[in-house]
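Submission sheet (multi-component)
Chains listed below:
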Amino acid sequence: MGWAGYGVTGAASIYLIGMTGAGKTTVARSLAAALRYRPVDVDELIEAVAGEPIPAIFAADGEEGFRALETEVLGSVAAFVKCVVATGGGVVVRRENWGALHAGVVVWLDVPVAELAGRVGGDPGRPLVAAAADKPGGVQGVLTDMLTARGDAYAQADVRVRAGGGQTPEEVALAVAEALLTFIADNPPRFGGKDAAAPTAAKGG
Ligand SMILES: Nc1ncnc2c1ncn2[C@@H]1O[C@H](COP(=O)(O)OP(=O)(O)OP(=O)(O)O)[C@@H](O)[C@H]1O
Ligand SMILES: O=C(O)C1=C[C@@H](O)[C@@H](O)[C@H](O)C1
Ligand SMILES: [Mg+2]
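Outcome: structure written.
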């Protein structure tokens, strides 16, 4: 792609947030390759740290146990720069996670529920979706409730990218890169653009 190799965010990492199935993992790989950033997947790191897959963590420690691990892993990721970080769908619910997310620029991949349901319905690897089999509204009902509960949190992202409608992951990655360029042009002080405030020398005492 023509934009490969651009350091679009300076040193800052890019954090992809959004509903389960929105394509965070898939798009992070594509975007990282195109930008020559490092791809990082928080769910994969959690599984590596725990030594077991996510459904087993939920089964052993419940959602609370999983969330605690997620916060820990996310916090350690925040130390790194120039990464494209795919987060888990529920990372936005804990207020303390936002300190780590704001180490970089936060992008919401916003995909309609019907499309999400088609992608992740029946997937045993996503315990909250798998549990939908026993609920009256099924997968669409569970995802709709989830979006209602989390929508305000996703909306706190720096950048929102509508990522449904049959776009390929590569097309979504390009849309993210373009949206980032606009966001950074509009927010130069935060990302070291030409109008950024010069660092002030620390005053000795
Ligand atoms: N743009 C796309 N078009 C069609 N299918 C897609 C697209 N992006 C991802 N997918 C598919 O949807 C499924 C979910 O994608 P992915 O695992 O990247 O979602 P996620 O946001 O990381 O979900 P989670 O929060 O559960 O980790 C995968 O099977 C993936 O191949
Ligand atoms: O939406 C969610 O709460 C989740 C999404 C996945 O990425 C995993 O983090 C896990 O399955 C929970
Ligand atoms: Mg994922």
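Remark: The chain has one domain: 14-185.
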